[in-house]
Fold:
Amino acid sequence: MSIRKMWRIGIREAKMILHDPRAFMFFLVVPFIVTFLFGFLFINHMVIGIRVAVVDQANTQVSRYISRSFDESMRFDVEYYLESEAEAVKMIEQDKVDVILLIPKDFTYNLNRGKNTNVLIGINAVNSIINNTSIAGAMEIIQNCSVRLSAAGLIAKGATVDMAKNKIMPITGVMRPWFNSQYSYLNYFFLGVVAIALQQLMILAAATSFAKEKEQKTLPELVSCASNSVLAGLGKLLFYWVIALIIMVSVYYITFKVYAIPMRGKPGDIIALGIPFIIASLGIGMCIGLLCKNQINAMHWTMLLTYPCYLISGYAWPHSLMPDFLVKLSQVVPITHIAQHTRDIALLGHGFSYIKQDLLILSAMAVAATVIGLLLFVWQSKKKGGKATC
Structure:
């Protein structure tokens, strides 16, 4: 008997979920969307196509074999052949390459005489995922080339295969990490975590605040405090703009001063990106709050955005490894246009010219989100009911 009653309760709950679009989305649709999203995100399984610049100072058939081995590897893609190490480092600073392969002048000379010889592998250590993959992939290639070249040289001099295996003089790969020499995960992750936390808190603050006004039917009262609905909506947003800006500046000050994260660029460039980032995030929060029935719904939708936004932003997992549709989707997420640049300004010293395009995108996003939010506010405030005195 008790089992039958429990079954009836289960049927009742199922009907309630099916007749509630929000509950239906959260319990029966969102889990599958998130699963497919994350699956597509990591669909390539590993980091491939790491951009390489080659500085071949030896310029011999043997040295070209080394660089060709990198280009033929699935993990690497040789995009530039340069004349000097300084030019290659500048390419890393400009985010045009991730790895430098430097083959010294005496490379072939030492190898032909059975001497140990080095090649330099310079890596942009700012991104730990690319850094770790580059080290593993480069060492594997160097080791394979070392065995083949050394064995071939010894056999050519009359040694047997077994003798050659015992006398191989390896080519050594010397790793040089740039811009994050200690391989600090604090430098890599922390700035992105701060950015996603700021975005989430701003969206949540605006969403719950406007949802509360709507839930308690106090929108007419808010409008009565100003001459019209637009000014009332802007006035409420302005309060959050100022508070959010103070919080953002304070948080980044603590980030760089207390945790001693390097700052090679200008802090003003981060603030320049931060202002439209704040406005866009609060505008999105305003839209969510006014579209939701109550504060609980607003919190649910806000929290739902957290992990997908962070993962598709390109900060933790590179955009070059994502499907095109996810890269395009990430362009409407504010954090995409600030998290990576914040790290690059701090660690690589990127200037205003590198953030200009994303600054324009964030500004357009801020205007669009604010305008849509204000239109929703005007529409909601005209509904009947609620107090009308300030």
